[in-house]
Design brief:
- It is globular and about 60 Å long.
- It has an eight-stranded mixed sheet with strand order 5-2-1-6-7-8-11-12, with helices on both faces. It has a four-stranded mixed sheet with strand order 4-3-10-9.
- The protein is an alpha/beta fold.
- Helix 4 links the parallel strand 7 (111-114) and strand 8 (138-144).
- The longest helix has 22 residues, at 197-218.
- The chain folds into two domains: 2-195, NAD(P)-binding Rossmann-like Domain (Rossmann fold, 3-Layer(aba) Sandwich), CATH 3.40.50; 199-340, N-(1-d-carboxylethyl)-l-norvaline Dehydrogenase, domain 2, CATH 1.10.1040.10.
- It has helices at residues 10-27, 47-55, 95-99, 121-129, 175-186, 197-218, 223-227, 229-248, 255-269, 275-281, 292-302, 307-323, 335-344, and strands at 2-6, 38-42, 57-60, 66-69, 72-74, 85-88, 111-114, 138-144, 147-152, 155-160, 164-167, 191-193.
- The protein is 46% helix and 16% strand.
Length: 345
């Protein structure tokens, strides 16, 4: 299997490292035919990719262990040619721009797996990769509770170990899906193939909606959501709204599982800052539209009141406008750099 990871941010780099280490281990087994033939980390040109190309990726595990992993990296779309699996790990709002250049090099047999935050990514990817003849790769859904941060160019720290769930738009778990889950699990990326992937996606949406904008606006690390009574109450109100919208959408969610998930994420990631907080601090576009924004849009469709999600959406939007140029101004050209950062992951 030839695998490409699209998005050379912390998560993309971590996944590429896990798969590369598995490929190297398989190649050392006497007489074995490696299941993974190639792993490519694809992203826009950046200091991070340059550092990996020159020195390898410095990966710091949760126990403090340091490893240097030699990754194959590229910013050339043609290098993706022949990939059996393409995993998309860019910012949600950059989905279409990230995958569109790859369209000539993917086939109807290619599997494109999104492990991004929020809702709507798969639809954007399908549209961007559909040819004029109506042909496109298979696009599968996935969510992951793995976590990582990029500490410097060429350096990534693994901050949270979790599970990844993958599935299709239908409930059928066929052999190909199960085999992919097994391949990723063998690469130390614990993965399950599930029938109810939409429930998994909505469950993570509820957790992200409750943690990310609150930590971003309050400018606090993740652990504060669980430690501060006001933030905790706000998180519970936001999550409860997502549950109601999910049910209206036909996705039954267990509210206690979501509460447990919020507690687990804030405990495991502790002093780490959410990606939304980091984006606001760096005057970058956040994923608020794909997270709370999608909750609000689905809520309006079903006439479900979501005042807390709507307020967070408006506050983060206003915060973004306070740091970013108004569209149409001369400074608007700075968005090219912002897009580069999003596609890098």
């Amino acid at each position: 299997m030839k695998i490409t990871i699209v998005g050379a941010g912390a998560m993309g780099s971590l996944m590429a490292a896990r798969l590369t280490l598995a490929m190297q281990a398989q190649s050392r087994e006497p007489g074995a035919t490696p299941e993974i033939e190639r792993v490519l980390l694809y992203g826009r040109p950046s200091a991070h990719l340059d550092a990996i190309r020159k020195h390898g990726l410095e990966l710091t595990e949760r126990d403090g262990q340091h490893d240097i992993v030699r990754l194959e990296v590229s910013s050339t779309p043609a290098d993706v040619d022949g990939s059996d699996l393409v995993v998309v790990l860019v910012k949600a709002w950059a989905s279409a721009d990230a995958v569109a250049p790859l369209k000539p090099y993917l086939t109807r047999d290619t599997i494109v797996l999104t492990l991004q935050n929020g809702l709507g990514n798969a639809s954007q990817i399908r549209t961007a990769l559909t040819t004029d003849a109506g042909i496109r790769p298979h696009v599968w859904l996935g969510v992951t509770t793995q976590a990582a941060v990029r500490t410097a160019p060429g350096k990534v720290r693994h901050t949270g170990t979790g599970i990844t769930a993958i599935g299709r738009r239908t409930t059928l778990v066929h052999e190909h899906l199960s085999n992919l889950a097994a391949t990723l699990t063998d690469a130390d990326w614990r993965t399950v193939a599930v029938e109810d992937i939409h429930r998994w996606v909505w469950r993570k949406l509820a957790i992200n909606a409750a943690i990310n904008p609150l930590t971003a606006l309050a400018r606090v690390p993740n652990r504060a959501v669980n430690a501060d009574p006001d933030l905790w109450q706000a998180a519970m109100s936001v999550a409860a709204e997502v549950v109601h919208v999910g049910e209206a959408q036909g996705v039954r969610l267990n509210q206690q599982q979501i509460i447990d998930g919020i507690q687990e994420v804030t405990r495991v990631t502790g002093d780490d800052r959410s990606s939304m907080l980091i984006d606001l601090e760096n005057a970058l576009r956040t994923e608020i539209e794909a997270i709370n924004g999608q909750v609000v849009r689905h809520a309006r469709r079903h006439n479900v009141p979501v005042p807390n999600n709507d307020l967070l959406l408006r506050l983060v939007r206003a915060h973004e406008r306070g740091h970013r140029p108004i569209s149409g101004t001369k400074e608007d050209s700075s968005y090219a750099g912002e897009l580069d950062e999003a596609i890098r992951g």
